[in-house]
Design goal:
Number of helices: 13
InterPro entries: Aldo-Keto_reductase (IPR050791), NAD(P)_OxRdtase_dom_sf (IPR036812), NADP_OxRdtase_dom (IPR023210)
CATH class: Alpha Beta
Order of helices and strands: EEEHHEHEEEHEHEHEHEHHHHEHH
Largest sheet: 8 strands, parallel
Organism: Actinidia chinensis var. chinensis (Chinese soft-hair kiwi)
Structural class: alpha/beta
GO molecular function, one term: oxidoreductase activity
Shape: globular
CATH superfamily: NADP-dependent oxidoreductase domain
Helix content: 25-40%
Keywords: NADP, Oxidoreductase
Protein name: Aldo-keto reductase
Length: about 350
């Protein structure tokens, strides 16, 4: 198997592997946490294969995924990777809140450094935007953390085009993380062009449609009962029946091409541009190997067009998230800086 190549992420100097590894599912949200020893083996296998861009967050667990990565990166492993983590979603008294106030930003960063057992985070994202705090205020604190050497590069996740511009004016943003896959394409209209105009790298999470394009609709029967995908609109029976056709057509095309449907879906994301780094997650070495196989799947313009026609906007049924969760797409912008009164 060829080693995974490298790419420049954004224009600030960060270089990462051409595909990353999303680590969330190892510890949280996708059913019970997986055995630590197996996950450390998987992380080491990824790094040896050239996948050195690892993605976590303080909310995965919460905290347990960062602790896992801290253990996995001992013994000289830390120097071989580009480590991304996130802050901004907090759980207090069983309630989920989104925060971007300076004191919280700093405390969250210190907490992540401690759990990861490192002195500096390579890429630090605001996981969700706090729409009560002007983005300039949050960025001001992140900029201080860069100056203090606690973080190297700044990113935002799920931010609107205007928020990205306002943030970038305070301190250069290196990467925007967003959901981008064959069945999630709303970012193509404004967010992606804004990133390209400003020289910001694009990190695509859930590039396999949360496993849908690798396993198809049957995955719903095999996932654990506490897997949060069970509650997502696209995986509800009435929508799944409709979405099944899309998977079947992608699968047919993959069979003709001599690859798996997951590899085809992932190759489509790679073909969006050399500034896009997908970060598929997995908990199994064989699935990881299959995912990096997507890098050698080359698609012609005709094949790209065929895939687009299969999944054209009306093809997918169901929203990305159910209405009651603060993980929803936060398109609303933060208040203007002039409105902020610091205590």
């Amino acid at each position: 198997m060829a080693r995974v190549g490298r790419m420049k992420l954004g224009s600030q100097g960060l270089e990462v592997s051409a595909q990353g590894l999303g680590c969330m599912g190892m510890s949280a949200f996708y059913g019970p946490p997986k055995p630590e020893e197996d996950m450390i083996k998987l992380i080491h296998h990824a790094v040896e294969s050239g996948v050195t861009f690892l993605d976590t967050s303080d909310v995965y667990g919460p905290h347990t995924n960062e602790i896992l990565l801290g253990k996995a990166l001992k013994g000289g492993m830390r120097e071989k990777v580009e480590l991304a983590t996130k802050f901004g979603i907090s759980y207090a008294d069983g309630k989920r809140d989104v925060r971007g106030d300076p004191a919280y930003v700093r405390a969250a960063c210190e907490g992540s450094l401690k759990r990861l057992e490192i002195d500096c985070i390579d890429l630090y994202y605001q996981h969700r935007i706090d729409t009560r705090v002007p983005i300039e205020i949050t960025m001001g604190e992140l900029k201080k953390l860069v100056e203090e050497g606690k973080i190297k590069y700044i990113g935002l996740s799920e931010a609107s085009a205007l928020t990205i511009r306002r943030a970038h004016a305070v301190h250069p943003i290196t990467a925007i993380q967003l959901e981008w896959s064959l069945w999630t394409r709303d970012v193509e209209e404004q967010i992606v062009p804004t990133c390209r105009e400003l020289g910001i790298g694009i990190v695509a999470y859930s590039p396999l449609g949360r496993g849908f394009f690798s396993s198809g609709p049957k995955m719903v029967d095999t996932i654990a009962k506490d897997d949060f995908r069970k509650h997502l609109p696209r995986f509800q029976a009435e929508n799944l029946e409709h979405n099944k056709t899309m998977f079947e057509r992608v699968n047919e095309m993959a069979t003709k091409k001599g690859c798996t449907p997951g590899q085809l879906a992932l190759a489509w994301v790679h073909h969006q541009g050399s500034d896009v780094c997908p970060i598929p997650g997995t908990t199994k070495i064989e699935n990881f190997d299959q995912n990096i196989g997507a890098l050698s799947v080359k698609l012609t313009p005709e094949e790209m067009a065929e895939l687009e026609s299969i999944v054209s906007a009306e093809a997918v049924k169901g929203d990305r998230y159910s209405g009651g969760t603060s993980f929803t797409w936060m398109e609303s912008d933060t208040p203007p800086l002039s409105s902020w009164r610091s205590e």
